[in-house]
Inverse folding.
């Protein structure tokens, strides 16, 4: 098949499946949407509002006006299509046009039928796929400055881009200084602009995550999760075995190390590993001869697992994974009925900001920096990873006067409800409950 009709089909697959989620905002994309809305109001990340992800993450959402609905899904479709085109270029450069189209098709497939919240939300791990592929493409083509520039772009999305830079040196180790200069040329201006605030919120907060494993046996969890990923992506692994070569094998190994860094094994973290395996599999399938259909048949596993979910979401069928999302829509509706002018969201519930579009009344878009309890455990734990930082931030909070507070954490974990903090008691005195949903309590400040 020629590239034009092939990419037309790929584009249709991407667009149709994503439009099934046009009425859904996943929490992983609601957080940058909330930040992007503040940026569009003239605020600067890290200085005017707390944000624990690199700056290009919310900036991407600001490009299309921090819109939800169809606009958000079209933006996501175009981004995935860009990733597929880069995979096509890279595999074509390594092998040929046929392998390039296979790479584009495989990447489109797995960025559609992997875990739904991971492939829908353009979070840092997914956003890094494009500069990751571009950096390796430039490295293979012998353009170290371009490879470095793409690594710098990736760093503005995800700190794990250091592993992308390391992979570029497989092909450009003699020009490591040029890769470094290209990286610095793109990443340094942001470091200078945001300075210490960015370091404290992105990197120090990130270190807190990586220092505290989610379980007592993280290596066991890592092996199990990686084995699960391998089974789910068995088509890539089976085909990659027929194209394994030293440079691409090293790239895959470095990428897997990046995915496992931090001892957290959420599905989205393996997007660092996916590009290398996709390119290897694209080279391997034609070399399997008549056995290529065995690898292709393994695609049934993810297709059967997640394919039926798309029409179910489009039809509005109930889904446990969307329980908090549906609750956020109800809370946003209450805020609009009360004509809310400013808001504090307590808990990690940024969908309330995304749906209500009420301006943030404080520097805090969620309560992680106010409780010190990290978002990946605050529904079941009360252990603060940074109690002193949280105490200082609460002292800052009591100097603000949000018109509304939406406590989206207390009904889920009562010990972390906003009313449980003695140092906030006097500050909360003027607030009265004016409504609630199953998982959110809405308070309004009563003026004397």
């Amino acid at each position: 098949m020629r590239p034009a009709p092939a990419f037309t089909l790929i584009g249709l697959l991407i667009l149709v499946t994503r439009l099934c989620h046009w009425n859904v905002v996943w929490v992983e994309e609601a957080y940058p949407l909330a930040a992007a809305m503040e940026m569009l109001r003239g605020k600067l990340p890290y200085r005017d509002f707390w944000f624990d992800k690199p700056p290009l993450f919310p900036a991407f959402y600001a490009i299309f006006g921090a819109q939800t609905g169809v606009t958000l899904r079209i933006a996501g479709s175009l981004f995935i299509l860009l990733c597929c085109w880069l995979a096509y270029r890279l595999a074509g450069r390594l092998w040929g046009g046929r392998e390039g189209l296979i790479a584009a098709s495989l990447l489109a497939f797995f960025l559609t039928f992997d875990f739904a919240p991971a492939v829908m939300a353009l979070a840092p791990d997914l956003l890094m796929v494009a500069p990751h592929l571009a950096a390796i493409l430039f490295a293979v083509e012998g353009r170290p400055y371009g490879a470095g520039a793409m690594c710098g772009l990736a760093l503005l999305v995800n700190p794990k881009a250091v592993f992308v830079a390391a992979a570029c040196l497989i092909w450009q180790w003699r020009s490591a200084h040029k890769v470094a200069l290209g990286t610095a040329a793109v990443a340094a201006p942001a470091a200078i602009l945001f300075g210490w605030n960015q370091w404290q919120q992105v990197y120090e907060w990130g270190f807190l995550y990586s220092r505290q494993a989610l379980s007592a046996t993280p290596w066991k969890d890592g092996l199990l999760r990686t084995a699960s990923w391998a089974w789910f992506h068995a088509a890539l692994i089976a085909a990659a075995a027929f194209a394994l070569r030293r440079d691409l094998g090293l790239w895959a190994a470095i990428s897997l190390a990046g995915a496992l860094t931090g001892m957290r094994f959420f599905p989205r973290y393996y997007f660092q590993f996916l590009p290398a395996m996709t390119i290897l599999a694209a080279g391997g399938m034609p070399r399997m001869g008549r056995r290529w259909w065995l690898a292709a048949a393994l695609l049934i596993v993810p297709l059967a697992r997640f394919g039926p979910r798309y029409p179910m979401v489009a039809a509005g069928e109930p889904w446990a994974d969307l329980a908090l999302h549906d609750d956020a829509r109800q809370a946003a509706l209450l805020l609009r009925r009360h004509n809310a002018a400013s808001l504090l969201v307590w808990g990690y519930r940024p969908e309330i900001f995304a749906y209500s579009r009420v301006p943030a009344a404080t520097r805090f878009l969620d309560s992680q920096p106010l409780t010190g309890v990290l978002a990946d455990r605050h529904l079941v734990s009360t252990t603060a990873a940074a109690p002193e930082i949280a105490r200082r931030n609460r002292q800052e909070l009591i100097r603000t006067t949000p018109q509304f507070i939406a406590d989206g954490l207390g009904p889920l974990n009562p010990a972390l409800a906003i009313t449980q903090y003695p140092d906030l008691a006097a500050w909360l005195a003027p607030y009265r409950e004016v409504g609630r949903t199953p998982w959110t309590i809405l308070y309004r400040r009563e003026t004397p």
The chain is about 60% helix and 5% strand.
